[in-house]
Amino acid sequence: MSVNSGVKENKEESSIFDLAVVLLEAVAIAIVIRIFLFQPFNIPSGSMIPTLLVGDYLFVSKYSYGYSKYSFPWGMAPISGRILSSSPHRGDVIVFKTPSDNSTDFIKRLVGMPGDKVQMIGGVLNVNGSPIKRERVEDKIEDTKCGVQAVHVYRETLPTGRSYLTQKLSETCKRYALGAKDDTDVFVVPPRHYFMMGDNRDDSADSRFPVGEGVGYVPEENLVGRARVLFFSLDESNASWFAPWGWPFDIRWSRFANVIQ
Questions:
Q1: Segment of 84-88, 143-147, 155-159, 200-204 carrying the highest mean pLDDT
Q2: Residue 259 contacts by C-beta under 8 Å, 6 or more apart in sequence?
């Protein structure tokens, strides 16, 4: 073997090694970002309509409430409770592990803090004996579980001034909706737990339902992070992997970079 060929082989080996190092560094950085900073999630169901739609992709900030074992893949970190913890705020849209299996990711809105008394009366959310302000803003026609029906969109405004949209089915459709629960007993949220509800009030298995039927009260260590911003949205009812030419028409361009209220 000539000297030149030996040098060439050494350069090739060095290039392969350098490439492997760069790839490992990139993977390590991605893992750190995913665990400690931001994690992408997609929305598979309609329980948060109209705030979040099926086919939305969003970033969740993992640092918002500190870290628990559920901040890490498969809950493998030996952490008890939360570290670097920060309390969530009423109205936050939160990703959490459902208490039924402590592994499935759910996304709902936080409406009840520890110690709060939460009740639904005539479809209106009541917290600590006071109704949350609700204003009807529009009606729309939507394809629901009981067919194409009218839905009513409301703007709820918390005492802090924070507001967001919710929706309810028409009375005709609501009779057939499994998630309709307009009137409830008073729920007293236990210490270090939270009460979550979907913005699609008649189609959300949330804290109004016990664990198994819904999510019940959510322990603080089950919080994964706060939903922050949409980075992609696709109308999955029309999109098909076998028809890529239609993708540009199925992307919801207007939802890109929307901040989640």
A1: 155-159
A2: 228, 229
Helices (H), the chain: 3-32, 171-174, 247-250
218, β-bridge pairs: 194
DSSP letter at 222 equals G
- Between CA 213 and CA 218 the distance in angstroms is 14
* Dihedral pair phi/psi, residue 255, rounded to 5°: -95, -5
Three-state DSSP class for residue 110: strand
Nearest of 169, 94, 164 to residue 134 by alpha carbon:
164
Q: Choosing from 62, 108, 168, 174, which is the catalytic residue? A: 108
For residue 47, indicate whether it is catalytic: yes
Q: Structurally, what CATH architecture does the domain formed by 3-245 represent?
A: Ribbon (2.10)
Report helix, strand or coil for 200.
strand
The answer to whether the Cα torsion of 126, 132, 133, 134 is positive or negative is negative
Encoded tokens for 145: 């579980």
pLDDT digits (tens, 9 = 90+) for 54-86: 999 999 999 999 999 888 877 677 777 888 888
Is 34 in contact with 189 (CB distance < 8 Å)? Answer: no
Task: Give the C-alpha separation, 224 to 250, whole Å.
Answer: 30
**117 catalytic, yes or no?**
no
Gap between the Cα atoms of 77 and 190, Å rounded:
25
Residue type, 172: T
> What are the residues whose beta carbons fall under 8 Å from the beta carbon of 213, sequence distance 6 or more?
205
